[in-house]
Design a protein that fits this description.
By secondary structure, the chain is mainly alpha-helical. It has 3 domains: about 15-110, Winged helix-like DNA-binding domain superfamily/Winged helix DNA-binding domain (Arc Repressor Mutant, subunit A); about 115-165, no CATH class; about 190-295, no CATH class. It contains 11 helices and 4 strands, in the order ααααββααααββααα. It has helices spanning about 20-25, 35-50, 70-75, 80-90, 135-140, 170-185, 190-195, 200-215, 230-240, 245-255, 265-290; strands spanning about 95-100, 105-110, 220-225, 225-230. It has a two-stranded antiparallel sheet. A two-stranded antiparallel ribbon has the order 3-4. This is Replication initiator protein A (RepA) N-terminus. It holds the Pfam family DUF6017. InterPro entries: DUF6017, RepA_N.
Length: about 300
Amino acid sequence: MRFDYFYNEQSESYSFYRTPKVFFTDDRFRCLSSDAKILYGILLDRVSLSARNKWIDEQGRIYVYMTISSIEKSIGRCHQKSCKLLDELERIGLIERVKQGQGKPTRIYVKNFIVVCGSYSKKYEKHTQGSMSDIPLEVCESSSNNTEINNTDISNNNPILSGNIVDNDGDKDMDERNAYREYLMEQLSMEILFERYPFERETLEAIIDMMLDVICSKRKTIRIAGDDKPVNVVKSQFLKLNSTHIEYVMDCMKDNPVKVRNIKQYLLAAIYNAPLTINSYYQAMVNNDMAEGRI
């Protein structure tokens, strides 16, 4: 088979499953098989669909449905292997399956790979006395008492990973925000964007701060383009963005001839809608260039 090259923004014209980079850079996830990492990316992709379908439980947590047969077709593995992959993801704590009774599909909660909840269940409280082989990731990280620990995909010199547990809620919130900031700086390749837009550094930093405000918000909803959306849905959307989406937002601001009255709301809407509108935006640019004979 012969495949063509990608040109300009063509790569954004197709659908991709996104597998978190941290799965390949953080030692805590090196035990995951490649198939399990791919399956997590597929499940993560379904979170947005679930949000649109209002598959949200009474605690505001998004869940997905995916049968074993669907997994078999998606990753090309047999029934037994597909079951083992789900078990693998659940053992490390990246998903949680909840059975709903006979004849009803199993709910799958796709866990946030950035911050691991430290509110341990009773069955793991005395983990130092038993076997460590069956203990999930969040328990293995520390032998401390039953306090909240935020584990992130950041390097081990991050204060959240150092094992220094702080009781002050304000300090915990700040640690969480700093962890997300480091994640976004890497995920969005911000240092490269700073070089690419040297005169727009303040705008780029404002975008990061606004994203952090949403990601770390304790509110249940946030207003985007005049609509109140569940904050967890917006947060999920933000965490899946990459540098191309931020470049798109910057281009939109540059090309917008209308004076923006509420720049914060404009940016929030542009960032949230970037994955949905980026293809149409660049396709329109290509069509315009073709019409004018530039290409």
